[in-house]
């Protein structure tokens, strides 16, 4: 169902100027019923000025009167030819002010861990511009020394499904172009579900690479025994035989 422009401001006007129920206003404006109650109590949208839907060609007075008489009637948005296709408008994603300072960190994460993503995909995911992405790629951003790569999903800048869809699109494009992918690049192109379901491949640590043919078939203790048998004290010191010693003692006597 199409929603009115400036939904919260429209809800403020309907609360102040009509006797519609909270549910009717909530359904029409695409808000929660508790939000409408908060507007009526003054706790929500206290500084928002009401937006007249009748004067702005979104509702008719007859439609409002009909809904006021029947609490079960749902307000119908007035057809506006100028608004056709408005929801399909393309452009950068809107990022709240509180999260805009995190966008460079998210861009750095995407550039580092998903280099296959093009600038247009990154701009659509986190709501930024191509010049900003280019400065981070070239590490010429004014704050590059203080930036840290942070997952945009963890920052709330995009959904995991949107990131997976962008990665899968990049994977399909790379496969179509016929480029060879390394194991690390292939792993990065997998979605979250595929990477979790994939079986872990045993990999040899780099510290012991080249020792695949090393074996411990021989016992080191056997080698020590052979050394002891081969070498004895007499061979090291060249001691005279015991018979010669006895002859020398007899001559002295």
UniProtKB/TrEMBL annotation:
Positions with biased composition (Basic and acidic residues): 175-190
InterPro entries xref list: TrcR
Pfam family name, one: TrcR
Biased composition (Acidic residues): 241-253
Region (Disordered): 175-253
UniProt-recorded name of the protein: Cytoplasmic protein
Lineage summary: Bacteria, Pseudomonadati, Pseudomonadota, Alphaproteobacteria, Rhodobacterales
């Amino acid at each position: 169902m199409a929603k009115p422009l400036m939904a919260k401001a429209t809800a403020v006007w309907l609360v102040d100027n009509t006797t519609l129920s909270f549910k009717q206003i909530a359904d029409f404006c695409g808000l929660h019923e508790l939000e409408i109650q908060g507007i009526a109590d003054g706790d929500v949208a206290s500084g928002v000025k009401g937006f007249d839907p009748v004067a702005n060609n979104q509702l008719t007075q007859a439609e409002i009167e009909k809904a006021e008489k029947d609490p079960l009637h749902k307000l119908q948005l007035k057809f506006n030819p100028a608004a056709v296709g408005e929801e399909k408008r393309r452009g950068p994603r809107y990022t709240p002010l509180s999260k805009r300072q995190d966008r460079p960190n998210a861009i750095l994460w995407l550039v580092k861990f998903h280099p296959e993503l093009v600038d247009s995909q990154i701009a659509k995911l986190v709501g930024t511009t191509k010049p900003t992405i280019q400065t981070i790629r070239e590490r010429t951003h004014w704050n590059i020394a203080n930036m840290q790569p942070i997952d945009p999903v963890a920052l709330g800048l995009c959904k995991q499904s949107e990131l997976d869809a962008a990665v899968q699109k990049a994977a399909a494009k790379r496969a179509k172009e016929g480029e060879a992918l390394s194991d690390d690049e292939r792993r990065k192109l997998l979605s979250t579900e595929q990477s979790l379901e994939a079986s872990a491949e045993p990999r040899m640590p780099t510290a012991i690479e080249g020792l695949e043919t090393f074996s411990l078939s021989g016992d080191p203790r056997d080698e020590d025994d052979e050394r002891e048998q081969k070498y004895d004290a007499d061979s090291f010191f060249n001691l005279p035989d015991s018979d010669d010693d006895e002859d020398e003692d007899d001559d002295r006597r």
